[in-house]
Every structure is written in C-alpha cells, then in structure tokens.
Amino acid sequence: MSGNLQEQLYQRLRADLLAGRYLPGQRLKIRDLAAAWGTSPMPVRAALQRLAAEGALEGEAQRSLHVPQMDAERYRHLLQVRLSLEGLAAEEGARRMDADTLQQLQQASQAMQAALDQRDVQAYLQHNSQFHLGLYRAAGNPLLLRLIESLWLQVGPFFNQLFTAADLSLRLNEFHQQCLQAILAGDALAARASIERDLSFCGQALLNLLALDSQPAS
Fold first, then answer.
1. What residue stretches are annotated with the HTH gntR-type domain (predicted)?
2. Using an 8 Å Cβ cutoff, are 143 and 114 in contact?
C-alpha cells in the first residue's frame, strides 16, 4: 500500500510541476506536504527524492527540497533541446492524430483562451500542459514523451514568468490555434512549425526577463 501511495504522491507532484503550480525557488517541506495530504513523511520523502533524481528538485532530501532557480544559460540549453524534441513529437502527433485526441486539444485551447481572458495563470498553465503533452503523446513514442516530460519538469515552474508581461498574453494561445488548423488541414509539418514558433516566442520572452533580472540594480 505504501508503494501505491508513494506513486500517487509522485504523480501528483509531477503533474503540479509540469503545470507550473510551483515557482522557481519555492521550498517543498516534507512535513508540510505530509500534513496537507494526511499521510506520513516517508512516502512524501520518497516521492520528492524521485523528482530530485530527475532534476526537477534540489536540496536536502531529509529536510526539504526546492524548485531550482533558472538562469539564462540553462534555459537556452533547455530550449534548444526542447525545440528539437517537441518539434518532432508535434509533427508525429499531428500525423497520427485521432478524432478523440483532436477534440481534447481543441477543448484545451478553448480553456486556455478562457483562462487568458480571466487572467487565471494556473488554469492557463494546466491546460497548456494538457495541450502540448496530449499532442506529443499522440506521436506514439513513449521514449520521446519521457524525454520531453523530463525537460518540462525543469521548465514548468518558470512558465509562471510569462504573465509578468502585460501584453504577452495576447499571443499565448495564437500558436496553439495555428497548430489545430494545420492538423485539420492534414499538414503535419505546419503543425510542427506552429509548435516551434510557440516555443521560440515564449522562450525569447523568458530569456528577456532573465536578462533584466541579471542586470545590476541602479
């Protein structure tokens, strides 16, 4: 039973990291999480240790861990790999798309737009995760999906920073809609290009924010 509980806690924390529910630098205290979930510290510690082994968390496993901070060099490296892997997964996912998955992606895009209209950051990030990972899952390549998810565990918390720019949200769903149009047209390469534009647009915005943060205070 403890193994099942550990797996449940791991999957819950993992989903929260993928959806950007934790912020860079945020501490995850074992006892606080155990109290919130009504369980003992042991399965929580084991779940956190698994995430630390994947590079999603840092710190002392016996006390508390935290979400890693992001810097420009690390993010550039992550973005470079994401463009290659997610572009491939988007192309293959579009090519293998079925009606049920397409409907789920359409619903996720609609939910993203509603979240943007309401300035609901967490709802947007949750549905954004569902859209991208749903598209990549459709590629039918478990190894490719695992590699992408391992990168998302590292960048998901940083996605919160997209909402620090007031006008940025006007384009945060544009490329998803273009991707859907390409899928409906049967153009897998155009679907890939839309996802790559999405990653590049958001990636450059986040790199700009990191550059501002690194400037010395006047």
1. 3-70
2. no
Which residues make up the CATH 1.20.120.530 domain(s) of the chain? 72-214
HEC profile of 93-121: HHHCCCHHHHHHHHHHHHHHHHHHHCCCH
Helix, strand, coil shares, percent, the chain, to 5? 75, 5, 20
Q: Give the amino acid at 62.
A: Q
Residue extent(s) of CATH 1.10.10.10 domains in the chain: 2-66
Any idea which residue has 């579009």 for tokens?
Answer: 94
Angle 142-155/121-137 helices, nearest 10 degrees? Answer: 160
* Domain 72-214, architecture per CATH: Up-down Bundle (1.20)
Cβ proximity of 35 and 169 under 8 Å: no
pLDDT in tens, the chain (218 residues): 456 888 999 999 988 888 888 888 899 988 888 898 888 888 988 999 999 988 889 886 566 789 988 889 999 999 999 999 999 999 999 999 999 999 999 999 999 999 988 888 889 999 999 999 999 999 999 999 999 999 999 888 888 887 765 555 668 899 999 999 999 999 999 999 999 999 999 999 889 888 876 555 44
What is the value of pTM for the model shown? Answer: 0.85
Region 2-66: CATH code = 1.10.10.10
Residue written as token pair 């769903």 = 173
Hey, what are 17's tokens? 């990291």
Rounded distance, CA 163 to CA 141, Å? 32
